[in-house]
Design goal:
heterodimer; A: about 900 residues; mainly beta; Immunoglobulin-like; Ferric Hydroxamate Uptake Protein, Chain A, domain 1; Porin; 26-stranded antiparallel β-barrel; globular; B: about 240 residues; two-stranded antiparallel sheet; 3 helices
Chain lengths: ~900, ~240
């Protein structure tokens, strides 16, 4: 009776939110009463109602709604998540706190969910791709033909996935954010470690996850925007040590030794990958170097805008010259392990040691487009470089509950280079032999502690990080004649430069995100205290003596709004206020500015997303641009600051747009993106050329714009096992520069395109992969135009001779064409692989570039403002190897 | 007239519903009792179709093997030429319909099978939808791409105790399952009873349609309750 009266009042006051306190002595549990309707106010009966504990996510109790749409649950007090779902309607997750003895909820309205369920098609037949919400599952057997060796061969065959030129995995043309092996991020951004070392028979299936949430993520927002590719390992390769050893030997002492040791356990995942070769194969790319050394990217903080890489920072040369070297020896080892001692903790150890020894030889002709100095410079270079790079990352995550997480990250990087340059310089037919020895030693250490907590549906996050970076660089130059217009006391033309920089940075950040049904608001604060120093000294000369110190306090306070305009449209707008206090060599200055960002994102379905973003912010120069005395770059280049102030604000605008569509059923993917960066103030060069020296002065320029666009299309036929892909990209930079203090413009245009046709016949004797690559780069300045055109048609074939014998053939012709020279390079790389099904052995005969077994040369065009360069470089010679692989 | 038309129009648009169709396989794993080796014929999985719409579900047997009696002639191991005759009887239903109406709490079962004497027997059951004392477990596994959670229950079937292990997914908010199993916070995708039988969804497909009407099967014999049927079976022994 009482219940009936109660119920009537409920009906009358349905629109109000109210809680009833009714003592209930019979049950010590709280009764939760609710009613479910759809948007048309019709009752929904048979809806699924689940009460989960907020901290553990375990089901406490559950029921269904009755014919009048009502439900009743009994529960102990505490905080819970009420999950309400019904077929064809959007699921509601509601946080509730049960304190009273009876809880009367408002009428719960479920909204129809037409779009997403259409995509839930299980076991799409004869297709191999299953789309389930945000997850695209690939049944890899459907795509393979048995010639695959490693994970790389699998990924390139899956529609929508690919591997780009720097070895990173792309999903619909865009690099993926996480590569997971059995759910763990074992190889960070070094995707090539996984793709080249995990053999194809270990792979069970692959799934592409959009809006991926990792272990440390506790955000209540389900749209994280992260894309992850998860590779599941077959059960027979789990919970034990597996791996392989590969050895190859060839003529002229060529060798390659490669190994892999894995253990994919339930609690511990382990991988050890050594690789040693003198074939020129590097396991580390320039992109890896950036991601491993740019610790801001590792700690994932909202990057404070700084101009990071300057002319003073020498990158190890081996990163830039992949094959354009005369010889290269590489020793590499990567260790990665992820340990889950309990459900609440995760320990992640990642270490890389890389040692490279390489020799480069090239000759170049420099033509200065300077009216005052009429000269041609011919140079013969021989550069020997040894580089040791080591990184160790240790990350511990503790997640006491589903609502809070602690992360502690330590990163140590060591980067030592030892470089010997021998240069024969002929300027106006006078010869100067120069030896340059450069030894930069970089050490950096970073420690980062962060804590995130969700408070009901809101997210609180805070972090403290400390970074120390030290670079000590020694440069000794000796020559047979005078150089750099230095005053040498004796006939020994020697310059010794010491260049030391150091950076101490402490960063504290705090943010709070409020989540509402249709909007979210994030408030954040970031404070960074930076202390950087620069010291340089050459031959005790005053004009070469720098001792700088820059202390900077930067704070950033901002707010970001996220609105859901409709089911498909989301709009983000943010504004931040920045305050900078600089102390430069005891001169104090203050600056402040506003930053803006805004984005509109349209998600038509899980695989059809378009967005448009705009960002405005300011960068500030680092100490590397401020040297008021000369610093030697090389034997004919000096660097000095002209008018860059430590408190200069360098504003930039960035507009970017992207759109991608992936249709799993039609196996069609399309991606478009474009971005335009406008800098009305930037750091550029003022170049002053004399006979023996080029002085490059850091100067504020008024134009530094960059535009780039990319279109990609891939289509696999459903009727025939053929896949077509094509991409076209264009980029354009337009920069001001100064020569003899007169302003000029410099334009660089690049257009490149790749077209491919690939077959994937299951039982055919032969499969092919036809491609055509084209790129054209044009440089323009006030009175010169130079260009380099590279075209490369290629045919790759592979097939089976018998059930155990596989063959592969790669062939291409690369033709280089610059202003007045043309050169064709033919490449033919055949390979045989013998593998018996049950055998632990695999045998190879590998030929690489067998038409160029002697050293060959290629043409390059490295033009830059103020001069035009024609370069002929040695490239690696081809080789023939015999090898074997033994599986453990 | 206009009014009626308007009402008719309104009701059709309001009847927004989603229908789920699927295929269920029932795989016998072992024979019941001490004889744990199944004959080749019995090892075959049995296929059922499944539909769920508007809080009603129906499961129908597709494969129709029927009852077979095979005579096997075995040579006497010791005496040449002497043979022994043995028969293998496989009793299989040739019709089986299970209907559950959650709105009116109605459970219906219609079955017909030939007995050992190859005489067709009809069974028609009408009862409340059976309830289970499910215990939710923490284990999860992925079935058909869905994350499934484990739940266990026990019940008495005639004289035997039946241990039930069910795997359900919260992602499909239907409190139904194959056969008479139901009552978990999500569709039951797989059931294993006493490790004898594995019942599993093989295919699932969602449709957005308003036309599917699931109707109760017509009874071909006198309606009895589940208990009544069980008593009948026990009395037969």
């Amino acid at each position: 009776m009482l219940k009936k009266i109660l119920h009537n009042t409920v009906l009358k006051k349905q629109l109000f939110c109210f809680f009833l306190f009714l003592p209930n002595f019979i049950f010590c549990q709280t009764k939760i009463i609710g009613r479910i309707k759809d948007s048309k106010q019709d009752v929904i009966s048979g809806a699924n109602i689940i009460l989960k504990k907020a901290d553990t996510g375990l089901i406490s109790t559950y029921t269904t709604s009755n014919t009048t749409g009502e439900f009743e649950l009994l529960s102990k007090p505490g905080s819970y998540i009420l999950k309400i779902s019904y077929l064809g309607y959007k699921t509601i997750n509601q946080n509730i706190n049960i304190t009273t003895t009876e809880l009367q909820l408002d009428t719960i309205i479920l909204v129809e969910n037409n779009t997403e369920l259409e995509e839930i098609i299980l076991k799409a037949e004869n297709n191999g791709i299953v789309q389930k919400g945000d997850v695209t599952q690939y049944k890899i057997d459907k795509f393979l033909n048995g010639t695959e060796e490693s994970l790389k061969d699998i990924i390139t065959k899956l529609p929508g996935l690919g591997i780009n030129e720097s070895g990173k995995i792309t999903a619909n043309g865009k690099e993926i954010d996480r590569l997971l092996i059995d759910g763990e991020n074992l190889y960070k951004s070094q995707h090539q470690l996984a793709t080249e070392n995990i053999s194809s028979e270990m792979v069970k299936n692959a799934e592409l996850i959009r809006n991926y949430k990792d272990f440390e993520s506790i955000t209540p927002n389900s749209k994280t925007g992260l894309t992850a590719l998860n590779i599941n390992i077959k059960d027979e390769f789990k919970n034990k040590f597996t791996g392989h050893v590969e050895t190859h030997v060839g003529i002229e002492d060529k060798y390659k030794i490669k190994g892999a040791l894995f253990n994919f356990g339930k609690k511990v995942k382990f991988s050890l990958l050594p690789n040693s070769n003198n074939l020129g194969e590097t396991t580390m790319t320039i992109q890896d170097y950036y991601t491993l050394t740019d610790t801001d990217a590792i700690s994932n903080s909202k990057g404070n805008s700084k101009v990071v890489f300057s002319k003073l920072e020498d990158l190890p040369r081996f990163l830039n010259s992949s094959t354009n070297v005369a010889s290269k020896t590489n020793n590499f080892i990567a260790l990665s392990s992820i340990i889950n001692p309990s459900e609440k903790t995760k320990i992640d150890v990642y270490g890389i040691i890389n040692h490279v020894k390489q020799e480069e030889t090239y000759n170049r002709k420099l033509v200065f487009n300077d009216t005052q100095v009429e000269q041609d410079i011919l140079e013969n270079y021989n550069i020997l470089e040894k580089n040791f790079f080591g990184t160790l990352q240790l990350k511990s995550i503790y997640k006491p509950s589903n609502t809070s997480v602690f992360t502690f990250l330590n990163v140590l990087n060591i980067d030592n280079t030892d470089q010997e340059k021998r240069i024969e310089n002929t300027t106006n037919s006078e010869l100067n032999n120069v030896n340059e020895f450069t030894k930069p030693k970089k050490t950096s250490f970073q420690s980062n502690l962060s804590f995130n907590k969700t408070i009901s549906s809101n997210l609180f996050s805070t972090g403290l990080s400390f970074k120390y970076l030290e670079t000590n660089s020694k440069k000794d130059i000796n020559a047979t004649d005078t150089f750099l217009d230095l005053n040498f006391d004796t006939d020994f033309y020697t310059a010794k430069q010491k260049l030391n920089t150091s950076l101490n940075e402490t960063n504290f950040n705090l943010s709070y995100t409020l989540n509402y049904a249709k909007a979210s608001i994030e408030l954040y604060n970031q404070s960074t205290l930076t202390n950087s120093k620069l010291y340089s000294n050459t031959n005790n000369l005053d004009a070469f003596y720098n001792k700088l110190s820059l202390n900077q306090l930067a704070t950033k306070n901002g707010i970001d709004f996220d609105f859901k305009i409709s089911k498909t449209l989301k709009y983000t707008i943010g504004i931040n206020y920045n305050y900078l206090a600089n102390t430069y060599n005891s001169n104090v200055s203050h600056e402040n500015f506003l930053g803006l960002n805004s984005a509109i994102k349209a998600q038509f379905s899980a695989n059809n997303i378009a967005d448009l973003t705009y960002t405005y912010s300011n960068k500030t120069p680092t100490i590397h641009f401020l040297n008021d005395a000369f610093i030697i770059k090389d034997y004919r280049t000096l660097i000095i600051n002209e008018d860059v102030l430590p408190n200069a604000l360098l504003p930039f605008h960035q507009i970017s747009a992207s759109h991608f569509i992936f249709k799993p059923k039609a196996k069609l993917s399309y991606i478009f993106n474009a971005s335009y960066t406008i800098k009305n103030k930037s750091i550029g060069n003022n170049i002053i050329n004399t006979e023996n020296v080029s002085v490059s002065k850091n100067k504020i320029i008024n134009k530094d714009n960059m535009f780039s666009t990319f279109v990609f299309l891939e289509k696999s036929l459903n009727t025939l096992p053929l896949a077509f892909s094509g991409s076209l990209s264009y980029s354009n930079t337009n920069t001001d520069y100064f020569q003899e203090s007169t302003s000029f413009q410099y334009k660089n245009e690049n257009i490149s395109s790749i077209v491919k046709l690939k077959s994937n016949f299951k039982n055919a004797l032969i499969n092919f992969d036809l491609g055509y690559k084209f790129s054209k780069t044009t440089y323009n300045d006030q009175d010169n135009t130079s260009s380099l055109q590279i075209s490369q048609p290629s045919i790759n074939l592979n097939g089976k001779i018998s059930a155990h014998l596989f063959w592969y053939l790669e062939s291409n012709i690369t033709s280089y064409n610059n202003n007045d020279l043309k050169r064709n390079i033919y490449n033919l790389s055949p390979r045989l692989r013998y593998k018996k099904a049950e055998s632990k052995w695999e045998l190879y005969i590998t030929g690489n570039n067998i038409l160029n077994l002697d050293n060959n040369t290629i043409l390059e065009n490295n033009s830059s403002p103020s001069y035009y360069e024609e370069r002929t470089s040695s490239i690696l010679s081809g080789y023939i190897l015999i090898g074997s692989k033994f599986r453990i | 007239m206009n009014k009626i038309f308007l009402i008719a129009l309104l009701t059709t648009t309001l009847n927004y519903a989603q229908t789920l169709k699927g295929i269920i396989t029932i795989n016998p794993l072992r024979g019941i009792g001490d004889n744990t080796v199944l004959s080749e014929k019995n090892k075959k999985p049995k296929y059922h179709s499944y539909s769920f719409s508007k809080n009603k579900s129906i499961q129908k047997l597709i494969s129709n093997e029927g009852t077979t009696i095979d005579t096997i002639i075995v040579e006497h191991p010791e005496v040449d030429g002497l043979t022994m005759e043995t028969t293998e009887i496989n009793i299989n239903a040739n019709k089986l319909i299970i209907y559950k109406d959650y709105i009116n709490d109605v459970f219906r079962l219609e079955a017909s099978q030939k007995n050992r004497n190859l005489v067709t027997e009809y069974i028609s059951i009408k009862d409340h939808i059976p309830s289970f004392n499910w215990v939710l477990q923490n284990e999860t596994q992925t079935i058909l791409g869905y994350t499934c959670k484990k739940a266990t229950a026990e019940r008495i079937m005639g004289v035997r105790k039946q241990h039930i292990t069910a795997w359900y997914t919260e992602d499909i908010p239907i409190n139904d399952g194959p056969k008479d199993f139901n009552g978990l916070p999500g569709l039951i995708l797989q059931v294993n009873t006493n490790n004898n039988v594995l019942i599993k969804f093989e295919k699932l497909k969602f449709f957005k349609d308003t036309n599917t009407e699931i109707e109760a099967p017509k009874n071909e014999s006198e309606l009895i309750s589940i208990n009544g049927y069980q008593l009948q079976m026990m009395n037969k022994r």
